[in-house]
Amino acid sequence: METFLIAIATMGGLGFIFAGALALADKKLSVEENPLISRVNEVLPGANCGGCGFAGCYDFATNVVEGKAKVTGCPVGGSECASSVATIMGVDSDGLERMIPRILCLGGYTEAAQKMAGYNGPLSCSAMDLVSGGDKMCFYGCLGGGDCVAACPFNAMIMTSNALPEVIEDLCTGCGMCAKACPRDIIEMHPISREVFVFCKSQDDPKTSKAICAAACIGCSICARKSDGGVVMNNNLAVINYELLEPEKIPFDKCPTNSIRKISIPVN
Amino acid sequence: MFQKLLTFVGGIHPGENKNFTENLEIEEMPLPKSVYIPLSQHIGKPATALVKKGSIVKEGEVIATAEGFISSPIHSPVAGTVLKITTGANLSGVPKEYIEIQVNPEGEKVFMEPVDWQNNDKKTIINRIKEAGIVGQGGAAFPTFVKLSPPPGKTIDYLVINGAECEPYLTRDYRLMLERTSDLIEGIRILMKAAGVPKAIIGIENNKPLAIQKVTEAAKAYPEIQVATLKTKYPQGAEKMLIFAGTGRKVPPGKLPLDVGVIVQNIGTSLSVYDAVVKGIPSITSVMTVTGKGITTPKNLLVRVGTQLAEVINYCGGLKPEAVKVISGGPMMGIAQYDFNAPVMKASSGLLVLASSEINEAVETPCLRCGKCVEVCPLNLLPTRLAKLTQMGKFEDAEEYGVTVCMECGSCAYECPANIPLVQWIKLGKKEVSKIQRARKSS
Questions:
Q1: With 60 as the cut, is the pLDDT of residue B2 above it?
Q2: Comparing A27-36, B149-158, B358-367, which segment has the lowest mean pLDDT?
């Protein structure tokens, strides 16, 4: 009987001592962490894609709580995620629209002239760009090496047989990694409701661009003439100013190369 | 007689293929109908055009002036009328701005007054080299006068003249050494005086015995000029390799030859210096080797700057049907051309037309970890590691592994049994790392 009592007393006593030590440690050695961070982290997609510009979702959450990132900063989660984050943070989410990459070049191998020499080297846009600017005659257009396809964390990009990338909109989260990977800045992130784009980046003179690509903007400025500032000409290239753009003023059917397009119009 | 050959560690020995042109005298190519003068023929800022459409220019007249310290003026290589200033094909592969001049064969010449260099000071000579628009003809086209004016506090005690011509196929330096030996020695003496250097070494590879013999004989009268026989190996003519072979000094990574008290000049550059100082002729011509199995008649040609490649090819009888690749420069470091409208520049050393039999259309296979690239790298780098790090986008690591030290000689890719385009990857790595370094500096 006595043995039992000693055992219970010893074990119980030890239990009390350790519990006390733990309680003390919890108070004295606790690391202060804003509970908001883990709450924000929970509503984020958790893909750790880096599209927001931070090192993964947790880092983004920390920066949101610290006020260094916008509540709408996660491009992947879209408006739903943004409003959840905003609720947690107690601020208004200003209606984040889904962003989508637009590939602003239509000069595939069928449209764009190629150099008299073939390219024999690694299939990577940035590596191709080093060798006389790739195998197309155009120095502004898509290189077709697929750096964007390789950069996409969601398999939402494919390379077509015409050596132009294509976005699978259902899979795309709008993280923008493809736009960052493109050495020619052809891929731009736009709100999904935007319909009008100039599908060309060439600043070559009209004669050159006419000669080397069937899909090039040749700088004729027909689209810019009556657009009231919605389209401006910059170095032989039509550039859209979305703040002033009124699509009904643009004569899409007059574009000689069909490079300015409204994308709800079926593209052939 | 056995003689110990000077050399460096690493490197390769590709087929020399100099037999196409090594016994052909340098021939002057007739004037073309029009010349196309690029405004950027040197490292540094492009020159600014001084002429307009319709301007009448004389041969030797300055048509574009230097912009900033590291830059070089450009002289008209012909007399004629400026047709236009526009952008077009360039040997670098990317279109650049050029001045098109229609040639008038009866036009006037305006060369500079010769300089009596024996009785003038350093400054006058360097100034002449600067106004004559002379750039290094070893490949990088660095303005020569900049090299000759070292920052204060640096003592230079060696001038190394690069007569290695280690690129296969090219024979232009070899022919210049044979045909203009005494001019070359005088050019070297001018350079020595301009830079205030007491000793000069002319490094020549041992596959050019005739040149070694002739240059040694001509240099006999000047004990301060030595001829060093180098082992035939690529890249023996690379600045750092040549300095090590010739003087035993090692240029540390990221440093210049100046830091070990050496200036390196090319054979062609030394002769341009002679022409500019003794004869008053600015840099308006280039001697280039047109060679390879793909060209009908290989030649060593004296060509006006601005002559289109198409004209040069035509003058050499045109391309053979089996020609598949045209390279400006040598096979190891030259740039493949896709547009024959590209004009010859001051630093053009050759035009190589390879036939299908000379080309290995390699298919890349996985790395075997054989280490051959590491063995041959003259700068002791790990090419396979650098290429892999670049592929993976780990540019900071690539920087740590010394990617920026690479001089792109191509020895690693030449040796690679898996045909991995190592140099192309490393070039990309260098570009990305320098972007990171610039961002770091500005922040």
A1: no
A2: A27-36
B93 in contact with A, Cβ within 8 Å: yes
Q: Which residues of A touch B432 (CB under 8 A)?
A: 126
pLDDT digits (tens, 9 = 90+) for B425-443: 999 999 999 999 999 998 8
Could you tell me what percent of chain B has a pLDDT over 70?
Answer: 99
CB < 8 Å to A132, chain B: 92-94, 335-336, 338
- A149: tokens are 């396809």
B235 prior amide bond cis, ω within 30: yes
CA-based end-to-end distance of chain B: 61
Task: Report whether pLDDT(A183) > 80.
Answer: yes
Answer yes or no: same fold for A98-191 and A195-268: yes
Our measurement of the distance from residue B200's CA atom to the centroid of its chain's CA atoms, rounded to an integer in Å, reads: 20
- Segment 179-238 of chain A within 8 Å of chain B by CB: none
Under DSSP, is residue B107 helix (H, G, I), strand (E, B) or coil? coil
Contacts 24+ apart (CB under 8 A), B394-397: B395/B429, B395/B432, B395/B433, B395/B436, B396/B436
Q: Which residues contact A76 (CB under 8 A, 6 or more apart)?
A: A45, A47, A49, A51, A173, A174, A175
Which helix (H) or strand (E) segment is B405 a member of? none
- Between CA B238 and CA B167 the distance in angstroms is 10
Which two three-digit tokens encode residue B180?
């203009």
The shortest CB-CB distance from A133 to any of B94, B337, B432 is to B94
Residue of B286, B290, B310, B313 lying closest to B300 (CA atoms)? B290
Given this model, what pLDDT does residue B3 score? Answer: 60
pTM of the model: 0.84
**In CATH, what number does A195-268 get?**
3.30.70
pLDDT at residue A95, as a whole number: 57
pLDDT at position A266 over 60: no
Collapsing DSSP states into helix, strand and coil, what is residue B295? strand
Query: Which CATH number fits the domain A35-89, given the four candidates 3.40.50.2000, 3.40.50.720, 1.10.15.40, 2.40.10.240?
Result: 1.10.15.40
| Position A94 confidence tier, pLDDT thresholds 50, 70, 90 | low
Q: Which residues contact A25 (CB under 8 A, 6 or more apart)?
A: none
Q: If you average pLDDT over residues B57-76, what whole number do you get?
A: 92
pLDDT at A78: 75
Contact check, Cβ <8 Å, B94/A131: no
Touching A: B residues 344-363, CB under 8 Å: 361-362
Q: Which residues pair with B286 in a beta bridge?
A: B303
Q: How far apart are CA B220 and CA B201, in angstroms?
A: 13
Residue with tokens 């048509």: B63
pLDDT tens per residue across span A221-263:
999 988 888 999 999 999 999 988 888 888 988 999 999 988 8
Domains of chain B: 1-28+121-359 (3.40.50.11540), 372-442 (no CATH)
How far apart CA B42 and CA B384 sit, in angstroms, is: 31
Where along chain A do its domains lie?
35-89, 98-191, 195-268
Residues A187-201 have a mean pLDDT of 91
Please indicate whether, in this complex, the C-beta atoms of A130 and B428 are within 8 angstroms of each other. yes
User: Measured between alpha carbons, how far is residue B260 from residues B8, B136, B196, B199 in Å?
Assistant: 17, 20, 15, 14
Residues B378 and B411: beta-carbon distance below 8 Å: yes
pLDDT at B370 over 90: yes
Q: Does B428 touch chain A (CB under 8 A)?
A: yes
Positive or negative CA dihedral for B41, B44, B45, B48? negative
Residue B201 tokens, joined: 């070494």
Q: Output b/e per residue, A209-245; b: 16+ Cβ within 10 A.
A: bbebbbbbbbbbbbbbeebeebbeeeebbbebeeeeb
